[in-house]
């Protein structure tokens, strides 16, 4: 009876701890639009409301749009897209709504035609054009229209994402974005840098984008490179300590939406991170976790940045490092009963949990992914090496008495006791609910892997392989998948 009362009390405590509330999830909002024109207008309305000056670029002039962000920042102006031949209806309405008095058109007449300029003038708006024979010259001519800069940013002219990633910081520093090519340093950059007495240069991208020879010709250069565009964007946020109190997120290949995101991030002096349209990349997750970012604004519609990404951003597990330890393995079969080998069951469940957590946005590591064996010390060391936020060891129970059954979770008080208890109390009821097994509660025990792991750690006993009741449940792929979902949900609950 005492055991039943204790279990009931623990269950009630767990319920109060893990019941999610909307305020406990990360905050995610979205600025979208039916096309690039309406999207850029909606970003302008959100960030500016009204704007005396607007920067206008052609619908596919991504290089122009990116280079224009620092100039736009100095004019407190949003960047809008237009159809090249006719002023887009959405942009026309946007100019009126923003109460624009001046438009700075960027690019040649092939990007923004004279017909578009005339249509803007008919709205009673003054216009000027910054042009050039190519993107390199245009970027330099934009720089000439800015306040005298102390430094410049150099990127490869076709690597749009590199320019987008640095644009919010470049704008705030007053650094123009100048384009070079993969062959070497463009003469336009050399001429501008010399004439402007540039003191500092930021180069974005590795040597395959901006060559070593080009780099060495620049004034006090600093190079930021990474494994990919997502990594570079994350490194920029980290290196320059950009504010993540409300982080903007744009698609890494969304060249029509990303300049607008960079513009509003610059205006609000916030960080900008890049994502794949379908799932958050590892590097983006990593900085979200390391910076504990919890508020995001996604720029782009659900085709550009899917709702899956938005859901990952909203989940408090996003960017958290979870270490999963499937107990036993190889020659160590663990408990055996009713055709179940614990080592195989543990691995199957852990793999399912791994998938669920990765899909939720977590960064996961497993002590083993096949039928191999690690010592207890090695498992603990692997968890430490992974710099994990939490450690979860997956097991199944056994007893000489076949009537023994149920699910229980253990933690140890040696390290991180309070958070280990919290983790256990979040996961335990979720497992019980998923399996429909007897709730044996949360308990303490000095199991090696949770005793010596210094991060919050728990050991899960999912059920008894020696029980005819539990073993039938644990044999079911459906129930194992439900169990994995329950564990994943419990982990999310812990981070709320």
Automatic annotation (TrEMBL):
Keywords: Hydrolase, Signal. GO terms for molecular function: N-acetylmuramoyl-L-alanine amidase activity. Pfam families: Amidase_3, CW_binding_2. It comes from the Bacteria. Residues 1-24 form the signal peptide. Its EC number is 3.5.1.28. Residues 380-492 form the MurNAc-LAA domain. InterPro entries: Bact_Sporulation_Assoc (IPR051922), Cell_wall-bd_2 (IPR007253), MurNAc-LAA_cat (IPR002508). CDD domains: MurNAc-LAA. PANTHER family: N-ACETYLMURAMOYL-L-ALANINE AMIDASE LYTC, N-ACETYLMURAMOYL-L-ALANINE AMIDASE-RELATED. This is N-acetylmuramoyl-L-alanine amidase. It comes from Bacillus aerius.
């Amino acid at each position: 009876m005492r055991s039943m009362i204790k279990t009931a009390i623990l269950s009630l405590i767990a319920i109060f701890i893990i019941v999610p509330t909307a305020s406990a999830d990360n905050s995610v909002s979205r600025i979208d639009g039916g096309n690039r024109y309406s999207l850029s207008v909606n970003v302008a309305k959100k960030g500016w409301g009204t704007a005396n000056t607007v920067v206008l670029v052609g619908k596919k002039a991504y290089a122009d749009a990116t280079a224009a962000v620092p100039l736009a920042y100095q004019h407190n102006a949003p960047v809008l897209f237009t159809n090249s031949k006719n002023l887009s209806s959405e942009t026309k309405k946007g100019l009126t709504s923003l109460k624009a008095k001046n438009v700075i058109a960027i690019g040649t007449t092939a990007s923004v035609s004279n017909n578009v300029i005339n249509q803007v003038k008919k709205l009673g708006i003054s216009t000027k054009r910054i042009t050039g024979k190519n993107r390199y010259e245009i970027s330099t001519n934009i720089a000439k229209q800015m306040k005298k800069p102390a430094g410049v940013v150099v990127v490869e002219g076709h690597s749009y994402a590199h320019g987008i990633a640095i644009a919010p910081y470049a704008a705030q520093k007053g650094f123009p974005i100048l384009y070079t090519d993969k062959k070497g340093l463009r003469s336009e950059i050399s001429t501008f840098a010399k004439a402007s007495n540039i003191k500092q240069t930021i180069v974005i991208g590795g040597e395959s984008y901006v060559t070593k020879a080009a780099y060495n010709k620049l004034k006090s250069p600093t190079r930021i490179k990474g494994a990919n565009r997502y990594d570079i964007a994350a490194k920029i946020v980290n290196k320059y300590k950009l504010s993540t109190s409300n982080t903007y997120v744009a698609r890494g290949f969304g060249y029509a939406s990303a300049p607008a995101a960079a513009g509003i991030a610059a205006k609000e002096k916030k960080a900008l991170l890049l994502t794949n349209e379908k799932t958050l990349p590892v590097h983006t997750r990593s900085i979200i976790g390391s910076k504990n970012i919890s508020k995001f604004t996604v720029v782009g519609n659900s085709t550009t940045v899917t709702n899956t990404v938005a859901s990952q951003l909203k989940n408090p597990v996003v960017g958290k490092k979870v270490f999963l330890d499937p107990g036993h393995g190889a020659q160590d079969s663990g408990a055996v009963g009713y055709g179940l080998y614990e080592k195989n069951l543990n691995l199957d469940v852990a793999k399912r949990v791994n998938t669920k957590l990765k899909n939720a946005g977590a960064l996961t590591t497993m002590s083993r992914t096949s039928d191999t064996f690690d010592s207890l010390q090695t498992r603990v060391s692997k968890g430490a090496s992974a710099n994990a936020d939490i450690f979860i060891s997956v097991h199944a129970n056994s007893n000489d008495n076949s009537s023994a059954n149920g699910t229980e979770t253990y933690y140890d008080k040696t390290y991180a006791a309070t958070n280990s208890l919290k983790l256990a109390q979040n996961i335990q009821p979720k497992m019980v609910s998923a399996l429909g097994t007897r709730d044996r509660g949360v308990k303490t025990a000095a199991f090696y892997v949770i005793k010596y792991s210094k991060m919050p750690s728990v050991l899960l006993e999912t059920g008894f392989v020696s029980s005819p009741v539990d073993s039938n449940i644990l044999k079911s792929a459906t129930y194992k998948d439900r169990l994995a979902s329950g564990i994943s949900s419990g982990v999310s609950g812990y981070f709320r």
